[in-house]
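User: Just a sanity check before I run the rest of the batch. Below are the C-alpha cells for the first item. I only need the designed sequence back.
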C-alpha cells in the first residue's frame, strides 16, 4: 500500500524577496502522513515551505511553488494507491517574476497574475482504476455544495469539506473539523479534534471502503 500526501502552501515569487502565498501551516497534511505511517503504509509526503520538522519514516520531498508541486506530484502519482491533496496550492502566480528587488517608485502597483495548474484535476484525469484520489475543499461559504462540485469536477473519490471561516479549525490551527464525502454519496462528519485524530479517521474511512 502506497500513500502520497501533499501538504503546506506554495509560494509564488513576485521578486527575489516577495511572494504570494496563504496561511497553510502544513499541519493537516503532515498529520495524514503520520497517520499513514502509524498504519504501516509506505508514505511519500510532498511539502511546500513549512516550519514543521521532517517526519520520521516518511519520504519527504520539499517544493516551493505550484509548478514544482505539480511536477513532483504527477511523477509519484502513477505508483500511488491512495493520494490525498491537503496542500493549499496557490491558484495564481505572477506572470512575470522581477529578477531584482522591485523599487517602490509609484503610488500603486498592479501585478498581473495567471492561473497555476490545477494539480488535483490533472491527477483526476490521469487516474487509473483502483487508484483512490482524495481532495480537500477549503471553503468559507456553501461548504457541502462547493465541496461536492469539486469532487465531481476533479474526478475524485473522496473530498474532505473543510470550513475555514473560523479561527479554531482549518488553516494554522492544531484542530480541524471536516465532512468527508465520497463519490458514492456517503458522508462522514468528523467534529473538531486534533489534526492527527482527524487524519486517522479520514484514512480509516477510506481504507475500510477500498
Ligand atoms: O496546512 P494547515 O494549516 O494544517 O491547514 C490545513 C488546510 C486548511 C490547508 C487543509 O485542511 C485544506 O483544506 N487543504 C486544501 C486547501 C485548498 O487549496 O483548498 P481548495 O478548495 O482551494 O482546493 C481544492 C483542492 O484542489 C485541494 O485538494 C487542493 O490541494 C487542490 N488544488 C488547488 C489548487 C491548485 N492549483 N491545484 C490543486 O491541486
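Assistant: Here's the designed sequence for the first item:
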Amino acid at each position: 500500500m502506497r500513500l502520497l500526501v501533499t501538504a503546506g502552501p506554495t509560494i509564488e515569487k513576485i521578486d527575489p524577496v516577495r511572494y504570494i502565498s496563504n496561511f497553510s501551516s502544513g499541519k493537516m497534511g503532515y498529520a495524514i502522513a503520520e497517520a499513514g505511517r502509524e498504519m504501516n503504509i509506505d508514505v511519500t509526503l510532498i511539502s511546500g515551505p513549512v516550519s514543521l520538522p521532517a517526519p520520521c519514516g516518511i519520504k519527504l520531498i520539499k517544493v516551493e511553488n505550484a509548478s514544482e508541486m505539480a511536477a513532483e506530484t504527477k511523477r509519484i502519482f502513477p505508483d500511488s494507491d491512495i493520494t490525498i491533496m491537503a496542500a493549499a496550492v496557490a491558484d495564481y502566480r505572477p506572470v512575470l517574476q522581477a529578477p531584482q528587488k522591485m523599487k517602490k517608485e509609484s503610488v500603486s502597483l498592479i501585478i498581473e497574475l495567471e492561473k497555476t495548474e490545477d494539480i488535483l484535476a490533472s491527477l483526476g484525469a490521469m487516474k487509473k482504476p483502483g487508484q483512490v484520489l482524495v481532495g480537500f475543499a477549503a471553503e468559507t461559504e456553501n461548504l457541502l455544495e462547493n465541496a461536492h462540485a469539486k469532487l465531481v469536477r476533479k474526478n475524485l473519490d473522496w473530498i474532505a469539506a473543510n470550513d475555514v471561516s473560523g479561527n479554531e479549525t482549518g488553516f494554522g490551527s492544531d484542530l480541524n473539523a471536516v465532512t468527508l464525502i465520497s463519490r458514492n454519496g456517503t458522508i462522514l462528519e468528523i467534529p473538531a479534534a486534533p489534526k492527527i485524530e482527524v487524519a486517522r479517521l479520514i484514512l480509516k474511512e477510506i481504507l475500510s471502503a477500498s
